[in-house]
């Protein structure tokens, strides 16, 4: 059953998705980049499977989820949707590596070598190669996941040593600041780290930018933006 509020929220999804796409294309154009160089990942945590179905119907293929069980449940409920791609974007406990590896094609929050080893082991047992991004806590915020900038090189080396993991880029969650322009240095820092550790050839993807700041992230080179509330509406309290 979907409540009246829930139903109202579903009605606007396709329209809001179009608006976000338009803003992404415009931000890319302003930055002198091709509109197609930025991929939108629709972050659906805390939202019903029906919301994802609607977005998929409007042409959205990439979806991000934070919680392993929710990701798994939704992937099962939506197994009929062609070409859907699941991104595990949240902090990941080692004991959730199995369920995530079963459904996600990309893990965005690789932040320690033990997790790389476990994901690799699970991917190997499924006979697949998992694409991963190293999450960096560029803001140095205690409450956030991610390795320190100084740990990136070692973590990339550990990941490259895993036969069933393929590191494809870096990810960050910028501090939340009222003025989105003020987070620009954090996005620039992630790009600089990428350039220091192999550049675009080795690490083509920069996963950065959310509803509040994706345009700034695109100006600084984001290739993947993770957008939730601007598409699906605000989340219930407690869903971070
Ligand atoms: C929730 C979340 C998002 C999306 O946030 P919005 O502000 O709703 O766009 C993106 N990335 C991560 C890692 C998240 O946890």
UniProtKB/TrEMBL annotation:
The keyword Lyase does not apply. One of its GO terms (molecular function) is pyridoxal phosphate binding. It comes from the Bacteria. Residues 17-235 form the Alanine racemase N-terminal domain. The modification N6-(pyridoxal phosphate)lysine is found at residue 45. Its cofactor is pyridoxal 5'-phosphate. Keywords: Pyridoxal phosphate. Coiled coil: none annotated. Gene3D superfamilies: Alanine racemase. Pyridoxal 5'-phosphate (PLP)-binding protein, which is involved in PLP homeostasis. Belongs to the pyridoxal phosphate-binding protein YggS/PROSC family. This is Pyridoxal phosphate homeostasis protein. It comes from Chondromyces crocatus.
